[in-house]
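F.,

This is the one I mentioned.
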């Protein structure tokens, strides 16, 4: 087991209450150390509260579900994405002249500090049929923070793609 797994799996409730939070002011807390110092001091959760307040977007039965699932599977597979960044980058470079030729939707969130909307600039070059949606007052956990706004964007996109497709239309019942 890796160092990251040990830290994140030590107290799953704490890990999820720290990492899955809304952008609301009352839900935010500042770590006592900047991320770069936390990592050099021993982990991503260093300097975070030992007993963080409940998250408004992942609490109760939902939090318990996450805990039970991660007790079974752990963080190894999700962390492997980050461990494989160099190979993913190389693969991406090898695909520079290829295009994704199916309709696609990219929904960005204005307060997402992990996947900032600027990081998606240029996607249209690879995905000619890209449609964009944006939710300004939302953080990284878009489906949990702004489910209604996200569903509105998804439904409109699906309706537009369906109306513009050459598929045979099936009448509504």
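My design for it:
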């Amino acid at each position: 087991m890796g160092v990251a797994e040990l830290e994140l799996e030590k107290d799953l409730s704490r890990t999820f209450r720290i990492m899955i939070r809304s952008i609301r002011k009352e839900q935010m807390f500042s770590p006592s150390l900047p991320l770069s110092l936390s990592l050099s001091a021993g982990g991503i959760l260093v300097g975070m509260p030992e007993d963080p307040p409940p998250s408004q977007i992942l609490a109760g039965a939902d939090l318990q579900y996450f805990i039970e699932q991660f007790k079974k599977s752990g963080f190894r597979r999700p962390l492997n994405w980050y461990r494989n960044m160099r190979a993913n980058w190389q693969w991406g470079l090898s695909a520079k002249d290829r295009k994704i030729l199916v309709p696609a939707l990219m929904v960005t969130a204005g307060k997402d500090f992990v996947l900032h909307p600027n990081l998606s600039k240029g996607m249209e070059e690879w995905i000619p049929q890209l449609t964009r949606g944006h939710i300004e007052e939302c953080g990284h956990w878009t489906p949990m923070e702004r489910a209604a706004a996200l569903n509105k964007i998804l439904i409109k996109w699906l309706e537009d793609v369906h109306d513009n497709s050459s598929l045979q239309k099936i009448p509504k019942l």
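The chain has nine helices and two strands.

Talk soon.
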